[in-house]
Specification:
- The chain is mainly β and 162 residues long.
- The protein has a domain of 113 residues.
- Helix content is 10%, strand content 36%.
- Strands 2, 3, 4, 5 and 6 form a 5-stranded antiparallel β-sheet that branches. Strands 1-8-7 form a 3-stranded antiparallel β-sheet.
- Strand 5 and strand 6 form a beta hairpin.
- The protein starts with a strand and ends with a helix.
């Protein structure tokens, strides 16, 4: 299903579009291994014609199923694009494709939603990551001192006299 409008409906008024579209229709289902969109995307848009352009403004809202990049915990994040704006030229080199007087907004919405995805999703800003496993020292390993401290490989290389 595409989200679009007919240019003839814009001749003397502003058009209001409200509804939801599935992630599959926007091709957002399997975009990233850390971020999934499984619930519908809600939109509220106003569309108006300005001479040889169409201006679309509104809100896009969706819920992301994420996996934290630090601790690998699953969590949900609501993504809300409040001031979404799309300026569509009707003529010239960059004109928007028009078929049977209809314009499809789906690719423009999809692009802006993808650009709004978090680059590194975190369950909370102060997430400390995976818990650290305690080190077990039964015998001094090679490179370990008598106090049980393990020296680094760089420290061993620094001891070499070349």
């Amino acid at each position: 299903m595409q989200i679009g409008f007919n240019l003839r409906h814009l001749e003397k008024k502003v058009l209001h579009l409200k509804g939801e579209v599935s992630a599959r229709d926007l091709e957002l289902g399997e975009m990233d291994e850390l971020i999934q969109v499984s619930q519908p995307i809600h939109y509220e848009l106003s569309v108006e014609r300005l001479s040889n352009r169409v201006l679309v403004r509104g809100t896009l809202r969706l819920t992301l199923n994420c996996e934290c990049v630090r601790c690998l915990k699953s969590f949900q994040k609501t993504l809300e694009i409040n001031d979404w704006t799309c300026d569509l030229p009707l003529d010239g080199e960059e004109k928007v494709p028009v078929g049977n007087d209809c314009v499809d907004l789906t690719p423009f919405m999809r692009e802006d939603i993808l650009l709004s995805f978090p680059q590194h999703p975190l369950c909370e800003p102060e997430c400390s990551g995976l818990p650290k496993a305690p080190l077990k020292h039964s015998q001094p390993a090679s490179g370990a001192s008598e106090t049980g401290e393990v020296s680094s490989a760089w420290a061993e290389l620094n001891k070499l006299k070349l």
